[in-house]
Design brief:
Blueprint: H1 3-13, H2 19-26, E1 46-53, E2 56-57, H3 64-74, E3 78-84, H4 88-98, H5 102-110, E4 116-120, E5 123-133, E6 146-155, E7 159-165, H6 172-179, H7 182-185, H8 189-222, H9 232-249, H10 253-261, H11 269-335, H12 350-371
Parallel strand pairs: 3-7
Antiparallel strand pairs: 1-2, 1-3, 4-5, 5-6, 6-7
Length: about 375
């Protein structure tokens, strides 16, 4: 059986004591490829568990404990264990086997952490926020644009553990890409850490490009002839989604800076140069997010200004029509006072004259307002 299949039972035991019984029972079962599914078809949090030596996947189907013992005994290679949303019980045996710090284990299980890099003795613990763009036909006030998850990485001298939270960001393709480059993978667990960081930051750039298209569409709609009637809820929704992206991108700058500059025992010196390249890509994503935030603020202010202008224009039209209607209202009100001795009251041409004066006055006012742009 594969190490992933054995580990499913290992995590249920919560300790190392009963691990070898599992190995003997499981070796008869066929190996299952768990590289790509979001969750293991075996029903546990295990996605994959592989041993690498000199950058090449080691053959055979040993259980997790045997794999770790072989690696530590030979002093060559490392074990890569992939998990998806493990529970406390599932992670307990793993934490004991690899001597993981309880605080890091708690962060890995609970998730909802800020991007960071922490050192616990000989183990490095890194947290990355993964993002993906949610496709939608039309942006509305309730459209989801950015979906976030988390990837935690434990890095030791002879192991790397990736813990993924969320329904996206599978590391299966990343594993295949690394396996196609044995020279890079031979640098050890820190090569996996770099690959995960590079994968996450590349997703940031991809998402920012897609969000840019949504912002362009909103900007086009706002600055059309009827932009004042546009729905401001779409702008606020984009700002909320951009805030989610900002929470993932901005805090990662300091951890990547530490990985590229500060000497760390579990990070190969050659890998640190690659982290500097990832840091440069992150800087580009950070600048784009900041620019988008400022642009959305400008679009929102322009929309509010357009709404104010539209309201003022409506008020001018109402005022102009009120002025036109005021002429016949005033004249009719004057001649409706029913006095007996009013001028032209009993004159034969009094009525046509009054009607003519009213029409002429209304036409003069209408042309004046029309000429000045009020109507």
């Amino acid at each position: 059986m594969s190490m992933a299949g054995n580990l499913r039972k290992v995590t249920g035991l919560g300790g190392v004591g009963g691990l070898r019984k599992v190995a003997r029972l499981a070796r008869r079962r066929p190996r299952v490829d768990l590289s790509h599914p979001v969750r293991s078809p075996l029903g546990s949090s295990v996605v994959n568990c592989v041993t690498y030596r000199d950058g090449v996947r080691a053959p055979g189907g040993h259980d997790l404990v045997d794999a770790v013992e072989r690696v530590r005994k030979s002093g060559d290679g490392f074990v890569w264990l992939g998990l998806h949303e493990p529970t406390d019980q599932e992670f307990a045996g793993i934490a004991e086997l690899f001597d993981l710090h309880p605080l890091a284990v708690e962060d890995a299980v609970e998730a909802h952490q800020r991007p960071k890099v922490e050192r616990y003795g000989e183990t490095l613990f890194a947290v990355f926020k993964s993002v993906c763009y949610v496709e939608h036909e039309e942006l509305t006030a309730t459209s989801e644009v950015v979906n976030t998850g988390e990837i935690m990485v434990f890095v030791g001298h002879d192991f790397v553990i990736t813990v993924r939270h969320g329904r996206h960001g599978s590391l299966g393709p990343l594993r295949e890409e690394l396996e196609s480059n044995p020279a890079q993978l031979a640098k050890g667990p820190s090569a996996v850490l770099h690959a995960v960081a590079d994968h996450v930051v590349d997703d940031y750039l991809s998402v920012t490009d897609s969000v840019h298209l949504d912002i362009d569409q909103v900007e086009t709609d706002v600055f059309t002839a009827d932009g004042g009637r546009a729905d401001p809820g779409r702008i606020y929704q984009l700002k909320r989604e951009l805030l989610e992206l900002k929470r993932a991108v901005v805090p990662l700058a300091r951890p990547l800076q530490d990985l590229s500059d500060r000497p760390m025992r579990v990070v190969d010196p050659e890998i640190q140069a690659y982290f500097r390249d990832v840091s440069d890509h992150l800087l580009r994503a950070t600048e784009q997010v900041a620019a988008f935030d400022e642009l959305l603020n400008s679009i929102l202010q322009a929309h509010l200004a357009q709404v104010t202008v539209a309201q003022n224009e409506d008020m001018r039209k109402i005022t102009a029509w009120a002025a036109v209607i005021a002429v016949p209202t005033m004249v009719c009100g004057l001649y409706g006072m029913n006095f007996d001795h009013m001028p032209e009251l009993h004159w034969r041409f009094g009525y046509p004259l009054v009607i003519g004066v009213i029409v002429a006055a209304c036409l003069v006012l209408y042309r004046g307002f029309r000429r000045n742009g009020w109507l």
